[in-house]
Amino acid sequence: MWECDEKACCDGYYLTNPYKETGSATFSKDLAQFPHVVFTIHVVQLGSGFKVGFVSSSRDGENAEKIKLLEVTAEGSVAGSHPICKNESNITVQLSDKQVAVYVDDMTVANYEMKFEKTAYPQLTLQPGTALLFDLSLCLSNVATSVTVLRKQGITCTNPDPYTFHLDAISNTLNKDSGGSCSVIFDRPVSAKHHFYQLKIVECGADSAVGIGLADRSHEPTKFPGWKKKSCGYHSDDGILYKKGHHNKVMPTCAIGDIMGCGIRFPDRDLNNPPRGNGEPVRGETVEVYFTKNCLEVGDVSMTAPEGGFYPTIGLSEGDRVSVDFSAASG
Questions:
Q1: Degrees to nearest 5, angle at CA 223 with 287 and 177
Q2: Which helix (H) or strand (E) holds 303?
Q3: Cβ pair 188, 162 in contact under 8 A
Q4: Which of 15, 208, 256, 280 has its Cα between 20 and 30 A from that of 121?
Q5: Contact 226/245 with Cβ under 8 angstroms?
């Protein structure tokens, strides 16, 4: 048996079982602390199969139990189905409030209710010959429940940088009765090292509006970036740059195929000597947030950094779909 914890792994971790017996890896991030979570598994080598689940116990560590979410056989079968999982398959597990959904290459294989009243530590059990990439960098602790992460691509290294991922599709399946719009707030703040990201508009709904920007950690998942006090955002439908709930300036509108970008500059800082380890904005520090359309800068705005820094935030209207890239270099 083998295990890994925060000292031995990062948010993206390569797990392999070259032995003749089953092995398990238990991660020390308690997912029960997050109201909404997404994590992914990339099948490098299916081998003899694997299981995905949780180790759950009371807060004092007593009465531990194992909860199985998914079991994949050597043939690629899931819960008695025809073989659907194979080498290079991508598995997504989405937890939102009481609902758990499991996807294999965009196909829904499980959807049921589960309420975490205890701890919930992810556990992967690998049969001999199995190799997986397990990625927690997509934990979206403030994401609206109807946002669906369909697939993750581009995992190629053993310990991928949690910022250098590409989401092939984020879509908004909310209907107008549910408010119609929502935001995805990512789990990593921008910093001097990771200061730019962009999205491509893949599909547009009937009343499309896509927003890209930055917000503090408490931003409401039903509000676009720029609509709340500690946020700013560039909106595709009218081209308006919103700051703290107010119109700031008008920039070009965007449509299907356009690429919208958002980055941050530190005008009063020596980036070679950041004031903290990862270079996140310090509370009260003035930063410049700039926006791009198709790799050309179209506007900027000054913001005062909140406690904890700014988080990448994307707003979607009903029926909108975008791809997101955190590995892009700023212009």
A1: 170
A2: strand 296-304
A3: yes
A4: 280
A5: yes
**What span, in angstroms and rounded, lies between the C-alpha atoms of 308 and 197?**
19
Whole-number Å distance between alpha carbons of 89 and 106: 10
Token pair 């560039």 is found at 234
Token pair of 269, please? Answer: 């800082």
- Rounded Cα–Cα distance for residues 321 and 184 (Å): 12
Distances (CA, A) of 256 to 44, 103, 224: 33, 26, 19
Q: Does the predicted model carry a pTM greater than 0.70?
A: no
> How far is Cα 104 from Cα 150, in angstroms, rounded to an integer?
9
pLDDT in tens, 284-316: 788 899 999 999 999 999 999 888 889 888 888
Q: How many CB atoms lie under 10 A from the CB of residue 219?
A: 24
Separation of CA 151 from chain center: 11
Beta strands 36-45 and 107-113 are unpaired
Give tens-digit pLDDT for 225-246: 999 989 999 999 999 999 988 8
Tracing tokens 């990512």 back to the chain, one arrives at: 186
Is residue 290 a contact partner of residue 263, using CB atoms and an 8 Å limit?
A: yes
Query: Which among 187, 216, 235, 180 is positioned nearest to 307, based on CA atoms?
Result: 216
For residue 78, the 8-state DSSP code is: B
SS3 state at 47: coil
What is the band of 11 on the pLDDT scale with cuts at 50, 70, 90? very low
Q: Which two tokens stand for residue 133?
A: 């990439």
Q: Do residues 71 and 104 lie in contact, with contact meaning Cβ atoms separated by under 8 Å? A: no
Other C-beta atoms lying within 10 Å of the C-beta of residue 14: 16
CA distance 313 to 245: 15
CA distances to 183, 197, 298 from 259, in Å: 18, 10, 12
Which structure tokens are listed for 195? 């200061």
Alpha helices for 209-312 (secondary structure H): none
What's the rounded Cα separation, in Å, for the pair 300 and 254?
Answer: 17
